[in-house]
Design goal:
eight-stranded parallel beta barrel; TIM Barrel
């Protein structure tokens, strides 16, 4: 079936794409989503709803539906950490029935990096296998067990890339598998080392991979040196250079560090826009959705 929404239209038109991520709170009223909706409306092509990255929060499916009701194109994030293939397919068909047309397929951080370390992980399939399953659902109208999907099915699938991951050959291999499995767009982890990202982008272009999908470079406004330090110590899929941490620390008090973090974010966006092959910017606000309008305005996006 055809995929027709704001995100797919901009991808198809070859225009520069701006997306952002929303981190819902742990709540049963959806207020964190409705409160944040105003920061995104008429500013971005689509908004990802995070899928329990740090532990239980409002479900990404519910958040995506609330965003759609507010007139914002949603990207339903789905991690394979918490669901087997039965639940993944069931939830995605449910999302389609509720009007969701975009999905981001990812494995998710290990549960030991969340507030629910005692939780059992699932990882029945990984993000590449999940992308391939969505492709089969799209192109053949079939579930993994061969059952026919009633009523038709259409979903634009995307994936995540980690430009800092070494070696480059393995990085490109994973990227190629995700694109072959049906990723129409790639959102990268937050970029703090633009030079390293530029090398990754150059390799993706030379291999022809960047021509087969829309690559959106991730950016994140850091609030403090301590936040930067905590992030790079906790997660191995992003790199924050010492020079960034030192620059934040030298800025002064907490307020000054937040301003410096925003300045670094603006400089990063400016540099990323000049790199050949970059099709857009993905704003990872980390729960600081109120900063999105300022980022878009200051960066001239």
């Amino acid at each position: 079936m055809s995929q027709d929404n704001t995100l797919t239209a901009i991808i198809g038109a070859g225009k520069f794409i701006i997306t952002a991520e929303l981190l819902p709170q742990a709540g049963a009223d959806g207020k964190s989503v409705t409160d944040a909706a105003g920061f995104f409306k008429d500013r971005v092509a689509a908004v990802n709803v995070a899928d329990n990255p740090h532990g239980p929060i409002l479900s990404s499916l519910a958040g995506a539906v609330i965003l759609q009701q507010a007139g914002i194109t949603a990207v339903y994030q789905m991690v394979t950490r918490d669901r087997n293939r039965i639940a993944l397919q069931s939830d995605l068909m449910g999302a389609a029935a509720l009007g969701i047309q975009n999905v981001l397929c990812l494995s998710g951080h290990h549960q030991s990096l969340t507030g629910s370390r005692e939780s059992a992980s699932v990882y029945d399939i990984d993000s590449i296998q999940w992308l391939a399953a969505v492709k089969q659902m799209n192109e053949d109208g079939l579930l993994l067990d061969g059952a026919k999907i009633a009523g038709g099915f259409s979903m634009c699938a995307g994936a995540v890339a980690s430009p800092d991951m070494k070696p480059m050959e393995l990085n490109m291999l994973r990227l190629s598998k995700k694109i072959a499995a049906g990723a129409r767009f790639i959102q990268t982890q937050a970029v703090f080392d633009v030079d390293t990202f530029a090398l990754w982008m150059q390799e993706a272009l030379q291999s022809g991979l960047a021509l087969k999908t829309a690559v959106l470079a991730g950016v994140m406004p850091l609030e403090s040196a301590s936040e930067a330090q905590n992030l790079r110590e906790k997660y191995t899929d992003l790199t924050i250079p010492d020079r960034v941490v030192d620059r934040l620390q030298a800025a002064g008090d907490v307020a000054a560090q937040a301003r410096e973090g925003m300045a670094i974010c603006m400089e990063t966006i400016d540099k990323l826009q000049s790199i050949q092959g970059v099709r857009g910017i993905h704003i990872l606000s980390g729960g600081k959705e109120h900063l999105v309008p300022e980022i878009i305005k200051k960066a001239g996006l």
